UniProtKB/TrEMBL annotation:
Pfam families hit by this protein: Acetyltransf_CG
Organism: Maribacter caenipelagi
Superkingdom field: Bacteria
Record PROSITE patterns: GNAT_YJDJ
Protein name: N-acetyltransferase domain-containing protein
Domain N-acetyltransferase: 6-91
Length: 98
């Protein structure tokens, strides 16, 4: 799925607009760390893989910016469990389970 991801710093979230609806992941940035706090996909789009595609794009951006990830959002944590290759971004000392 090809999402056009935008980092909307004023809203403190990554957004992707799909068919006129906005899916997003909220964050808190502090120095070289990013806390992903909440993922939201419009009800009409649930179950279509949009949330997972959104998480993937955000993780790619976090990697590019060389930030340490603290996944506070349960959806993001579940994605990391299912895609362990991305656990390399998680800040040392943070346990998301296996």
């Amino acid at each position: 799925m090809n999402l056009n991801l935008v980092d909307v710093a004023l809203k403190k979230r990554y957004e992707a607009i799909i068919d006129g609806s906005t899916a997003y992941i909220e964050y808190i940035k502090a120095q070289d760390k990013i806390y992903l706090t909440h993922t939201e996909v419009p009800k009409s789009m649930e179950g279509k893989g949009i949330g997972s595609a959104l998480v993937l794009k955000v993780l790619e951006d976090i990697e590019k910016k060389n930030l340490a990830l603290i996944p506070l959002c349960p959806f993001v944590a579940l994605y990391l469990k299912r895609h362990p290759e991305w656990k390399k971004l998680v800040m040392k000392g943070i346990n998301i389970g296996d």
